[in-house]
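Sorry to interrupt, but I need a hand with the structure work. Could you add the entry underneath, on a fresh line?
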Amino acid sequence: MAYIIENVHLMKGQALTNTSMLVEDGRIMTTGSGFKRYQQMKMDADKYIMTPTHVLFDSTVPLTGSFTARKEYFLKNFLMKGSTVLFTAVSVQFERQLEESLKQAKKDLLDSPIDYVLGISIPLRLLTPSFIRKCKKLHIPAIFLEIDKMGSLEIMPWGWIREALFPYNCPIIPLFAEIQYEKEKQKQLNRWSSWMKKEKIPAIYEELKNGLPVSRSVLKKTGIFPEKSNLHNGGEVSYNLYNMEAVANYCEEQALFFQSKHLAVTVDKGKVIRAGTEVYYRPGKGENVIIKTPGFFTDQD
């Protein structure tokens, strides 16, 4: 059934635009302002600010444990915060474990209520051309690299690694050893960024923090955007509605993530999963999002 969402105040990044949407079968058919003569049922969104649903990074999501504990975790950390996509990293210590580890993670997430994107987390020694080629074959959209010593980067065969990554070009994301001081961590990030740019390696230049929305830049480099967290013609209908009066002073999409108390509605692929304080928990509705082309839409570094 087709319907129209009128008077949409759509926030993407820092841009707020006014539009209307023609929706059918869980997809946005078109956007614009010329729907006055249409006879479809209309929904007025004038009292709300609409954003795409959030993609959260979480490397500690419990893949095992009781159903009750897992349900509580997803409700508290995702659904109540307007997130409908989990981005996580599966730990792999040996090349022979790669496929089995991914299969196990997918099995553990069979009852997930939200979609999920699986990257892998590996020690530096595992970043070899043969391992990267296996990652490409399995469409792994991100390689999280565990770094104990920055000096170890200097002895890596980056030319071969760069060739192995091409043309899939999944980005490498740094995971530094636990550092107490933020200043020291920033120094490591700066060194990492300089080295990756020098070697022309597709990489992420920021730290991903557990339980927080993934930035638009990282979503683009990993290929999660534009398929997810994006409201566009032909795209899926997944959005949040925040009460306009309560959040009128917030002018950035990610800032609204911290205003979940003012989140009125969450829609995931055309289905309402939150209305006010009521959340409709649908175990097993989540799907493994396969990324065909990481970095197809990228910002300039």
Summary: The radius of gyration is 20 Å. The chain has two domains: 2-53+229-279, 54-225. DSSP finds eight helices and 15 strands in the chain. Helices lie at 67-77, 98-108, 129-137, 158-165, 182-199, 216-222, 224-227, 244-247.
